[in-house]
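Handout, page 2. Input:
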Amino acid sequence: MSSEILTTVQASAPRRLFGVTLNILLGLLLIYIALIKPPAHVGLQAFLVLLGATVLWLGQKMWYATQRVIELTDTELRDSTGEVIAYVDQIISIDRGMLAFKPSNGFIFKVKSAQPRAWSPGLWWRFGRRVGVGGVTPGSSTKMMSDIIAAKLAERAQE
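Output:
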């Protein structure tokens, strides 16, 4: 088994900047509304501040997460920190269709057994047996990665 990288997916700089900027603007807007035009109920004001702070935190998490690169090898799909997203031999199906519940410019696949939940905002997520790849990534590189995975699935089906 080779650990040679077949293809990579990484967030494009403009999309990354746009996604993070929108998160920050939304978070600041929610806090601004809560403080400048407070709702009649104090609980709603606290909710708006908490929601704004959460969105700001998610923007920061996205900024650091989108510095990573997703790498596909013969045996695994991992990110540049070494975290294994899924093993290739565990993938049973892939969906790239327009109506699939998938990340923007990405694809979703199903693995044989449920995995721990994980999320790298703007790059990938894993929930149970489903894994989504995409977000602020260019569609061309995620398409190439999904094509390689689909070819590996077809090759495995013929054996």
